[in-house]
Amino acid sequence: xxxxxxxxxxxxxxxxxxxxxxxxxxxxxxxxxxxxxxxxxxxxxxxxxxxxxxxxxxxxxxxxxxxxxxxxxxxxxxxxxxxxxxxxxxxxxxxxxxxxxxxxxxxxxxxxxxxxxxxxxxxxxxxxxxxxxxxxxxxxxxxxxxxxxxxxxxxxxxxxxxxxxxxxx
Length: 169
Hints:
Elements: H1 2-16, H2 23-39, H3 50-71, H4 92-95, H5 99-111, H6 115-126, H7 131-138, H8 142-164
């Protein structure tokens, strides 16, 4: 069990960050995810990879937390995240921004993407899966993955550009 936790904790945490930007909530959701799989390991039926099953549980935990948070709003605590790497901070337009500001802009823009596009970005950029592997993970055709990637990158670029120009994202 410890090996599973250490082997998947980073991926689960990054995946949860697609849905939630509260540091405390992220830790809670990750812990609840592992608690769920460790308390009922026989629920894994092998119809998908273990990681896909695990991230499905994490997604459900996120949705549960978000439903609860809508009823009981809390103060969000933002943190650095793995998606800061989606933006290359070296172009001249970004030189004047602090790295943290770049991460905040990317995070904001990521959260404004539809869930399907965020998931594709996660699998391709964070997990470094190919289009075909990503299609298998999200349960759609490779062409759909390409389309989602195209639209996600376009929307991200537009959102970041508007934020940098001082407009509303």
